[in-house]
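Title: Request for sanity check on NAD(P)H-dependent oxidoreductase prediction

Description:
We are preparing a figure and want to confirm that the structure record we downloaded matches what your pipeline produces today. Could someone re-run it with the sequence below and paste the raw structure tokens into this thread? We only need the token string, no images.
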Amino acid sequence: MAYNIVTIAGSLRKDSFSLKIANALAKLAPASLKLEVVTPAGISFFNQDLEGAPPADWLAFREELQKSHGVLFVTPEYNRAIPGVLKNAIDVASRPYGKSSFNGKPVGIISNSPGPLGGVSAAKTLQNILPGIAGPIMQQPEMYLNAVGDAFDADGNLIKDSLKPVLQAYVDAFAAHVAKHHG
């Protein structure tokens, strides 16, 4: 049986590094995982006034998460934090209070940046937000990918050889993390 994993690429940019990394992970995933890559595109702004009759896009996103066996976040860093669209998606999915769609789902966090710090502040932001609304967060290996600007070709294929074993090790560790919590 393959565990279904919602892999959220936290950027709206069509050529985002987060989306390319998420797609590369989907190709590298072991047979025990099926990564479905999504973005926050199309998720309307969270407004608590709408909780009584949530918009269809909220319900669809929540249902997709509820049907999954785990969640993998791949996020860029914007101004030392996660992008606002990713925070909005988390807010939508974690409501209504006490009924988070992330509840009990094993979680992985990968941050990335074309710069030298690898989006570490964005990963730390997620580590602060997710406890209490999500399942167990994989602690090791931590993944802060730096210098990803030259990692992909024009078609979005991973071409940076030094990055392949790093991503492979991470997705294999995540597969074990998911299996441990569903075994």
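Thanks, this matches our download. DSSP finds five helices and five strands in the chain.
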